[in-house]
Protein 1
Amino acid sequence: MVTTTPRHTGHEHPRPRSAAVVDDIVAQLSDQGYRDTEPRRLVISAVAAQGRPFTAEELCASLPCVGRATVYRGLRLLVETDQVCRVLLEDRELRYQLSHQGHHHHLLCAVCGASADLEGCDVEDMLREAATAAGFRMSGHWLEVYGRCGECAED
Amino acid sequence: MVTTTPRHTGHEHPRPRSAAVVDDIVAQLSDQGYRDTEPRRLVISAVAAQGRPFTAEELCASLPCVGRATVYRGLRLLVETDQVCRVLLEDRELRYQLSHQGHHHHLLCAVCGASADLEGCDVEDMLREAATAAGFRMSGHWLEVYGRCGECAED
DNA sequence: CAATAATTGATACTGACTATCGCTAACCTC
DNA sequence: GAGGTTAGCGATAGTCAGTATCAATTATTG
């Protein structure tokens, strides 16, 4: 398993900070009984290296040495364990992104693809109320907000 | 234009009320330059007959005499002209539904698949505000709410 | 170190949808 | 109505994203 690194206080050296993230995720997966494998680490590492929401195919392309199926499996595992969250673009394209954990929504820039987490927006209660009024018991929801980020708004 | 005519193919007697819906939609399409064709009417009629959100494949299955491509094309046209709206289930399955026009959101029952429009819920402003706070200019959003309808909530 | 069970990767497959293209029929003009 | 455009049709082939299969590999455990 590769990574030989002292896991404890890990940043004393210029290890790419993403390495810490990878170790952290691998450790969490390990706690849940998932093995620490080379391909898996490669996938996680590639995920951590992405600057913005990415597609499964992009990930595959960036990992020519890892089988497609393995990339997809790894990605699915990360989503299931809440390490990565799904992002839906306006054209329904599915993308992924390292999760900042916890339930939250995304602001997506239609121009550059950047994403930001929507803070301080508590639609939850509002939706639950409206659902109740319609005779429904709400159990969940899906929300994505589209627009232009600061940089792209100027055009 | 069109269609006050009892087309011979038709069953003039107790015209199902959906027939009025079909005529109406065909008329609107006609206004936009789309032809009034038999297969198109069949598609619209099948759409109008659905009691709840349906998939494209379900529609194909219910129209064995209409080519798949035609069903898909018809459905796409109806979406583009706002006669039909798309509904996204929790598992990302795409369904369709006669549109009640105007921007609105759906409440979807995870058990029986029924849908209701979410009334009196104005998330718009809230989202725009939160987006602005994050330096974004909001241009749109996608929201689906999942739960159980009154009937299914009892279980 | 051997046993065992998870994981991998090559590949075949699936499901949903789109492109192609020769043919048909709706609509417009006269 | 008749005739000419051309939208629309349907059969089918193709595409694309993602999944299933399965023999070989490898992390983990006893």
Protein 2
Amino acid sequence: MKLLDDDKIIDLAELYKLFGDSTRVKIINILIDKELCVNEIAEGINATQSAVSHQLRLLKQAKLVKYRKEGQAIFYSLADDHVEKIFKIGCEHIEEI
Amino acid sequence: MKLLDDDKIIDLAELYKLFGDSTRVKIINILIDKELCVNEIAEGINATQSAVSHQLRLLKQAKLVKYRKEGQAIFYSLADDHVEKIFKIGCEHIEEI
DNA sequence: TTTATATATGAACAAATATTCATATAAGAA
DNA sequence: TTCTTATATGAATATTTGTTCATATATAAA
């Protein structure tokens, strides 16, 4: 295993940072296997619409979630399998401690 | 996939948070496949001994690294395969964006 | 014992960040 | 158009967090 260069290290840290907040982890968790609109997410995780929207923006920027408009609603879902994979490998780790 | 309860969500976020800082990612990266003492780590990643020591304390608390004393030196290494696994799955993700 | 080396730690400071509140934008319904 | 609903966003605030600096602890060498 070679050392990553600094740019990649920073990218990697930025990626994990997004998983490093409980509101965002809740969002990712609730989006596993389904798509939900912002309000549904907010209700589902007991957070305000604003807080969820702010966090979705970060997840969207990092391409961890994708979205689809339908009327007034905007449905969010996980962007790809990697997101769930990263989530699940973390779960495995905390189960084993 | 069921929703994790709040305690697990918090544990999970705490775990990822540790991967969400470039100094710590560098430490984890440099410890893959070998053990190093604090000074070697500090030199290897261009950080001060103090900064590295502070971060090692966090990694140690979370059991992401283990250590072994030998004379004055303290050799650190990754605690288990999970750490490298989490690291590598993150690498895969950033490679693909 | 004194000196040197390796590591850890507490306090202070600066920077990053999550939430709240108010409000803006956008889309549909009346 | 006006009203309602859904979402986004900017500013302010409070909290968290990483680094630095100084110093403490511990081990080995002289």
